[in-house]
Amino acid sequence: MKCSVGWVVQENYSATSGKYSEDSEQTDNSVTNLKPDIVTMAKALGGGLPLGAMLCTEKVAQTFKPGDHGTTFGGNPIVTAVAGAAFRKINTPEMMEQVNKKGLVIKNHLEALNDELSLFETIRGRGMMLGAVLSKAWKGKASTMVTACQEEGVLVLVAGPDVLRFLPPLNISIADLQTALDRVGKCRNYLFSRVV
């Protein structure tokens, strides 16, 4: 049996402007040239309720027999109704426009911060799902930076020891987003006193 190499890509349909990796052109990531046989999704799909889904190519679908693929939450009518409503709300041109606009606000702020402090090697991602890869001088310090952001009341995540992950809620206002980003910028004193 011939097998393809598998990989996991964590994405959020709405946070990435309504496109999965394989659906769009992204010049800063060579992985997008790959076409997955199977894509799984959850979280935002259920609008906060437990729901997951799997999409696969026709070739893969032909290999499944009844009972091969089960799910704990399969067929739940309440959750699927909520998912339909959430998808109709999220999958609108207006929502996707806001995701792109807010994503640019985040990316531009991070690039300006980087121009000042040389914190990042690169800023990657799409829409409102962004990762800032730390520069050589800051390698291994992502958790310290998360702590600094928490001190300012901003929740930032890590994606390993060298990547800060920015994934705000889709419904954040531009004003609140700007306030949060300004607070991220205020972390420089904390960072320099603890890291440098």
Average of the residue pLDDT scores? 80
Which overall shape is indicated by the principal axes computed on the Cα atoms?
elongated
Q: Sketch the major β-sheet.
A: 4 strands, antiparallel
Q: In angstroms, what is the radius of gyration?
A: 19 Å
Q: How many domains would you count in the coordinates?
A: 2
Structural class: alpha+beta
CATH architectural name of the largest domain: Alpha-Beta Complex
Gap from first CA to last CA: 53 Å
Helix content: 25-40%
How is the CATH topology of the largest domain named? Aspartate Aminotransferase, domain 1
Order of helices and strands: EEHHHEEHEEHH
Q: Helical stretch count?
A: 6
* CATH class category name of the largest domain: Alpha Beta
Strand content: 5-15%
Task: Note down, in words, how this protein is organized.
The protein has a 4-stranded antiparallel β-sheet with strand order 3-4-6-5, with helices on one face. A two-stranded antiparallel ribbon has the order 1-2. The N and C termini lie far apart (53 Å). It has 196 residues and is of the alpha+beta class. Helix 3 (93-117) packs parallel to helix 5 (174-186). A hairpin with a 4-residue loop joins strand 5 (157-158) and strand 6 (163-166). It is built from 6 helices and 6 strands; from the N terminus they run ββαααββαββαα. It has 2 domains: 37-90, no CATH class; 93-194, Aspartate Aminotransferase, domain 1.
